[in-house]
Amino acid sequence: MGQFDGKVSIVTGAGGGIGQTYAEALAREGAAVVVADINTDGAQAVAKQIVADGGKALAVTVDVSDPESAQAMADATVAEFGGIDHLVNNAAIFGGMKIDGLLTVPWDYYQKFMSVNLDGALVCTRAVFEQMEKRGGGAIVNQSSTAAWMYANYYGLAKVGINGLTQQLSRELGWRKIRINAIAPGPIDTEANRTSTPQAIVKQLVQQIPLSRMGTPDDLIGMCLFLLSDQAGWITGQIFNVDGGQIIRS
């Protein structure tokens, strides 16, 4: 018996990396998981493995910046599993992202980036909240980053926006019995991080972390499952750092 038996969870950006780790962990805890990603092959591979391991999963192709695509994801979830209880807004442009400054980044790229990394969380929340309300409530986890408290160009700005979105939506969702919180990881050892972040910067960051190592996707599982669970039933609108002590906020 898992703590999420009978629950239905959508994880965006679950075709690999941290999102895959979240999806697999939810499935192990009994949830039926929708593996949602713009990368169709990645989503299908993750869902297939979850099913092979004895879990329930459905792969759905989604562009989180597109309201019609997000609504199709929600509709497919309800058609397959009967409802929606959880949403993990993990999808983001990170692997292969352009490194540039706010003053110089091409405007078209900036708009596309923000449409996914910030607006995508709102688009997906709008697509699912009515179905969550029909189930008597639910829980949403947004993926933030410690970059929100550091200089990290438009990536950091998007995460500042995710934090604000989490706080603002808690007011609109709370009376519907839907909780929303965010996880702010420190540097996590993923393929996307290895290819997108200059390793000299990563080394410098790790040297300043009290626990003296990079995180792994597995380090984030406990917080994600907790925030989706009834144990966090009186927690909403909060941002939780899982960062080895990288950021101190008073």
Automatic annotation (TrEMBL):
* Membrane-spanning residues: none
Instruction: Show the CDD domains listed in the entry.
Output: SDR_c
InterPro entries noted in UniProt: NAD(P)-bd_dom_sf, SDR_fam
**Taxonomy, superkingdom:** Bacteria
Gene3D superfamilies linked: NAD(P)-binding Rossmann-like Domain
Sequence similarity: Belongs to the short-chain dehydrogenases/reductases (SDR) family.
Q: Which PANTHER family match?
A: 3-OXOACYL-[ACYL-CARRIER-PROTEIN] REDUCTASE, CHLOROPLASTIC (PTHR42760:SF40), SHORT-CHAIN DEHYDROGENASES/REDUCTASES FAMILY MEMBER (PTHR42760)
This chain belongs to the protein called SDR family oxidoreductase
